[in-house]
């Protein structure tokens, strides 16, 4: 994504957005409703034209690919498939028109857990089943790059866990996985990296670990020799505050470093608790401003 901007009339859906998605990891694409995630994915897939800037996959625009399904697989809106067809017919038709072997259809129906309903019409499927079918379609061409827009919509807890494991498995195979959601709780356990947007703009492009670290509020440490430990920690560059109950709040060193330092000096430690704002809190704090703005049209009008 390079300086991508997409306007619909006077409304800006995506605003000068630049980020790169790496292979071998799951990248969570997060933002409140209306942040511009679907629009970005539609532009990547050539379904919408950018107003300016560009979205490239493997250095090329989607329209320039000779066999796009073999390069990029996508699940956008699972509800748009032809309801009169069976799951098997739908995938066979997609395979035929993209010169993909029939065997692959059967193995994918098994992979997504739809083998037993392959000959049922799609209109009888639940939303979760349609999501599974959409995922099978995305994987049909065995592409290295995969885009999933809110894939857990409509799935039960088993389905959510299945998606999580599937995404992690695809990334472990070295594929590039971009997964959108408006819920941080989902991403926390699935993604390695996060791209967070709000009102079409980039808010954060960071690893999950870095984001946790950024909002760490220190490590709480309890020791019967707190004074001695505080002195040792301060010497190592940490900032130490002694709490009224005698515990120490340490910043500047993480729990592992504190534990190792104490062990090295044979100072007993009875508690080491990192105090981290949850990722959910962090995400809400990061996006609060954009959400408030977006939900107050009278303010944007001025
Ligand atoms: N075809 C369109 N015409 C006009 N405005 C549009 C169109 N598509 C999207 N928008 C607007 O662009 C903005 C971004 O929408 P988009 O669907 O990309 O957000 P999103 O992050 O995917 O949100 P959600 O989580 O709700 O799906 C919204 O304000 C939306 O109303």
Automatic annotation (TrEMBL):
Keywords, alphabetical: ATP-binding, Nucleotide-binding, Transport
Gene3D superfamilies from the UniProt entry: P-loop containing nucleotide triphosphate hydrolases
Domain of life: Bacteria
Residues of the ABC transporter domain: 1-224
SUPFAM superfamilies on file: P-loop containing nucleoside triphosphate hydrolases
InterPro entries noted in UniProt: AAA+_ATPase, ABC_transporter-like_ATP-bd, ABC_transporter-like_CS, P-loop_NTPase
Pfam families assigned: ABC_tran (PF00005)
UniProt-recorded Gene Ontology molecular function terms: ATP binding; ATP hydrolysis activity
Signal peptide: none
Keyword Amino-acid biosynthesis: no
Family, as annotated: Belongs to the ABC transporter superfamily.
Protein name: ABC transporter ATP-binding protein
Species the sequence originates in: Sphaerimonospora thailandensis
